[in-house]
């Protein structure tokens, strides 16, 4: 059966704005029994989808019933979806003459305002001290078809959510005093918003109406409290979907515009707490975050095979500070970064002398020798406790550069905060930290293995890749992690994708899965070169390409001269096929990322993750982020 252009094609506009007037295109009628109930009815042919912009929000139904409790003059704008696009008529007004108290007796009105003749103040759930009191953070992200309590409003619709914690995602917005938002029911429904971080808005005074049945709100002449960074990505701040509302907590959602944001349409869900809740909130017993290291420190500091190992201070990144969870507080990746900071000293002459040699003598004990910046040796014994603290027999303190020293804590300890691994999974770096006695941070010292390097750094790569074919993993298709060199984070799992085409419909649908299942990536030796062969089916056509692979084993980068799998025409068509925002120098660079337990030694069972820069502050994005694709052995 063919589809006729009359039915589905985009032709010329067959309805003009002047046609969309009351009495001809639609009607506005007060209910015969209750004049505070207003009926809106489309008189257009049902082939046209009606578009209502009314005092309680927006809708696309043939008829709409408004329950308006307060007297006043209200505006309706009516439009239709035609063959040539959307057409709206001129706005028209109607009057409500009386107050009808039963319409504000719904508990939503009371929870929002405190009740008739009352007012209630709300705050964004993030303060200037970066504290969120009830929610994980001030802002969540939902699909465009999510509604009250996160329910999906449309079968098979754009329904998903991501609820980031602020501590791990402080890029969301700068911590601040954002101001306040006060709703009242004093002779009407009024709202006052103090946008303390958006001078262009400042103090706003307006009105609002709740639709308690559909869980929506329309604000006029005021916008809900929000951050300045997203002020320009929402077309209509007054068109609000309520996701939750209790006496103490509230979530209001607005639609992020795809064009204005450049990030795709979604619901920005702002999280609020009441003034009473904020004023009476007290922090509970919160366990101090633990650094990410959970291994066997005694083996990792020496090895499980030999009893002695030497670590030398990293010449590139000798020191830093971390938060209590082990996150680095300064974005330093080279000696020049210290110099460019203007405050962080760097002294190559002392740093090159600093080392730590450890010899294991027991299950959690051994001897050590620190060599300081002047090449003097400091020796003694150590033990390791169950929190990976290295307890030295004496206090250690010596200069790294200028005012920065390597120093143990008052109880003569350094803690193993985190380890780094190379592509083969071997430990290629350690961070030792001294807990600050006052501030919630560690002074952190970076060491890398001393001694000779492997004879052939390419051997492990060739063993892992050459002669093998990999396919996109349809169960753990992709993930999003931090910038190199850490690649920390990620929020997807092996059960995120598969046949679930609803939760992440913005990137995963049946078409994406079909393309992924058709694709393969093979590596082979061709003389002195490594070649990559890509095969896939797209739009019913088979596509094949061959490129050259150049590997940088020190930076764990594969330079692949051809684009990888193309998902054009699917929900994932926006995913990059090359590293277009590369910070490494070439759009053909793919990061080999040790993620989800995968490394160069276990690609046969764990697969490989290849990453490209998906968001870059340097490119004008709001954050730095790497998209990693998962390939599994065929």
Written overview of the protein:
- With 634 residues, the chain is mainly beta.
- The chain folds into 4 domains: 96 residues, Immunoglobulins (Immunoglobulin-like), CATH 2.60.40.10; 176 residues, Beta Barrel (Lipocalin), CATH 2.40.128; 153 residues; 175 residues, Lipocalin, CATH 2.40.128.
- Helices cover 9% and strands 39% of the residues.
- It has 10 helices and 38 strands.
- The strands form 6 sheets. An 8-stranded antiparallel β-barrel has the order 9-12-13-14-15-16-17-18.
- The protein is globular and about 95 Å long.
- The N terminus is likely disordered.
Furnish the topology, listing elements before pairings:
Blueprint lengths: L4 H4 L17 E5 L6 E6 L6 E6 L2 E3 L3 E5 L4 E11 L2 E4 L3 E5 L10 H7 L5 E6 L14 E4 L18 E2 L16 E6 L5 E6 L7 E9 L4 E5 L18 E7 L3 E8 L1 H4 L4 E9 H6 L16 H5 L6 E6 L5 E5 L11 H7 L6 H4 L3 E8 L2 E7 L5 E8 L4 E4 L4 E5 L2 E4 L5 E9 L5 E9 L5 E9 L9 H7 L2 E5 L5 E4 L28 H9 L1 E7 L2 E10 L2 E12 L4 E4 L28 E5 L9 H4 L1 E8 L9 E9 L1
Antiparallel strand pairs: 1-2, 2-5, 3-4, 3-6, 6-7, 6-8, 9-12, 9-18, 10-11, 10-18, 12-13, 13-14, 14-15, 15-16, 16-17, 17-18, 19-21, 19-29, 20-29, 21-22, 22-23, 23-24, 24-27, 25-26, 27-28, 28-29, 30-32, 30-38, 31-38, 32-33, 33-34, 34-35, 35-36, 36-37, 37-38
């Amino acid at each position: 059966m063919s589809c006729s252009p009359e039915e589905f094609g985009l032709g010329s506009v067959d309805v003009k704005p002047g046609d969309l007037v009351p009495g001809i295109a639609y009607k506005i009628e007060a209910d015969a029994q209750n004049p505070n109930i207003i009926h809106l009815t489309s008189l257009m042919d049902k082939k046209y989808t009606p578009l209502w912009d009314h005092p309680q929000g927006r809708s696309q139904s043939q008829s709409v019933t408004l329950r308006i409790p307060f007297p006043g003059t209200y505006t309706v704008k009516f439009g239709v979806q035609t063959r040539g696009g959307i057409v709206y008529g001129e706005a028209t007004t109607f009057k409500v003459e009386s107050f009808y108290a039963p319409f504000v007796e719904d508990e939503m009105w009371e929870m929002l305002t405190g009740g008739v003749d009352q007012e209630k103040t709300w705050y964004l759930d993030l303060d200037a001290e970066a504290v969120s009191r009830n929610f994980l953070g001030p802002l969540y992200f939902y699909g465009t078809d999510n509604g009250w309590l996160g329910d999906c409003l449309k079968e098979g619709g754009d329904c998903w959510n991501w609820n980031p914690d602020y501590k791990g995602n402080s890029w969301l917005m700068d911590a601040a005093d954002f101001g306040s938002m006060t709703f009242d029911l004093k002779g009407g429904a009024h709202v006052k918003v103090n946008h303390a971080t958006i001078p262009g808005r400042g103090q706003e005074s307006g009105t609002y109406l709740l639709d308690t049945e559909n869980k929506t709100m329309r604000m006029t002449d005021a916008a809900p409290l929000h951050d300045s960074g997203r002020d320009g990505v929402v077309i209509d701040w007054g068109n609000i979907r309520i996701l939750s509302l209790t006496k103490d907590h509230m979530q209001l959602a607005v639609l992020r515009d795809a064009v204005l944001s450049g990030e795709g349409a979604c619901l920005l869900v702002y999280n609020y707490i009441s003034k009473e809740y904020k004023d009476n909130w007290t922090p509970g017993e919160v366990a101090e975050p633990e650094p990410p290291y959970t291994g066997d420190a005694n083996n990792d500091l020496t090895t499980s095979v030999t009893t002695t190992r030497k670590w030398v201070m990293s010449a590139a990144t000798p020191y830093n500070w971390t938060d209590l969870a082990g996150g680095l507080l300064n974005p330093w990746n080279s000696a020049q970064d210290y110099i460019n900071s203007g405050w962080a000293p760097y002294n190559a002459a002392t740093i090159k002398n600093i080392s730590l040699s450890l010899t294991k003598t027991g299950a959690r004990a051994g001897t050590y020798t620190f060599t300081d910046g002047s090449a003097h040796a400091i020796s003694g014994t150590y033990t390791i406790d169950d929190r990976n603290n290295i307890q030295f027999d004496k206090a250690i303190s010596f200069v790294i550069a200028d005012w920065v020293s390597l120093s143990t804590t008052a109880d003569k300890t350094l803690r193993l905060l985190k380890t780094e691994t190379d592509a083969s999974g071997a430990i290629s770096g350690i961070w030792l930290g001294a807990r600050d006695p006052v501030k919630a941070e560690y002074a952190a010292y970076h060491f890398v293995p001393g001694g000779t390097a492997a004879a052939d750094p390419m051997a492990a790569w060739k063993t892992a890749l050459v002669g093998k074919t990999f396919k996109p993993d349809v169960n753990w298709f992709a993930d999003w992690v931090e910038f190199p060199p850490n690649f920390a984070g990620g929020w997807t799992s092996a059960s995120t994708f598969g046949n679930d085409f609803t939760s992440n419909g913005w990137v995963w649908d049946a078409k994406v899965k079909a393309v992924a299942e058709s694709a393969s990536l093979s590596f082979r030796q061709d003389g002195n070169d490594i070649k990559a062969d890509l095969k896939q089916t797209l739009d019913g056509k088979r596509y094949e390409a061959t490129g050259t692979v150049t590997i940088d084993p020190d930076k764990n980068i594969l330079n692949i001269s051809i684009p990888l799998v193309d998902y054009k025409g699917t929900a994932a068509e926006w995913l990059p096929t090359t590293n277009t925002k590369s910070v490494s120098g070439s759009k053909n660079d793919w990061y080999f990322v040790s993620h989800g337990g995968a490394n160069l030694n276990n690609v046969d069972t764990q697969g490989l993750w290849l990453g490209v820069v998906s968001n870059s502050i340097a490119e004008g994005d709001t954050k730095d982020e790497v998209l990693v694709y998962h390939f599994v052995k065929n």
